[in-house]
Amino acid sequence: MTETPRKNLSLADVEAIARAAHAGQTDKAGRPYAEHLRAVAEGVRARGGDDEQIAAAWLHDAVEDDALTEQWLAEAALSRRTKDIVRAVTKRPAEPPEAYAARILATDGALLVKEADLAHNADPARLAVLDETTRKRLTEKYARMRGLLGLRSS
Q1: Number of other residues whose CB lies within 10 A of the CB of residue 142
Q2: Which helix (H) or strand (E) holds 10?
């Protein structure tokens, strides 16, 4: 008897899973974290990303933030490419930014997801509500990562 291949989760399913996984979490400005996920997914779509990249955008912080486990990701009904992108954009503890950027650049489709993530993170309106020290630190951090990834300033 042959095994029937599993159908991958729809984008609506992935969105619902991501929203549930991050329920109750807020960003540095105190906004619901799902707003950031939605903005990154929309940013990927607006930049011409495909469904695999949009799915990865919804999940881009899930493993890093312990909202979902690596085991969940490994077993999820997602394409290998979506899983690879999520893994590529997941920062590892004590990982040098250069190694993180190299992994993103080496993974098909990951750069577009990270570009959308950085664009939303560095949105002046989003940064404006933070205290000056945090705003300056994050602005420098995001600019450095854009440079390591070869992205123009937004």
Answers
A1: 19
A2: none
Helix (H, G, I), strand (E, B) or coil at 57: helix
Helix axes 110-121, 97-106, angle to 10 degrees: 130
- Asked whether the predicted pLDDT for residue 1 surpasses 60, the reply is no
- Per-residue pLDDT tens over the stretch 27-78: 988 899 999 999 999 999 999 999 999 999 999 999 999 999 999 999 999 9
Contact 63, 73 (CB under 8 A): yes
Burial of 29 (0-12, 13-18, 19+ CB in 10 A): middle
Tokens found for residue 142: 């995001």
Listed residue (138, 88, 128) closest to 112, CA to CA = 88
- pTM higher than 0.90: yes
Spatial neighbors of 2 by CB under 8 A, at least 6 apart, are: none
Interatomic CA distance for residues 96 and 89, integer angstroms: 13
Q: ∠5-7-10 over CA atoms, to 5°?
A: 165
CA dihedral 127, 56, 107, 116 (to 10 degrees): -30
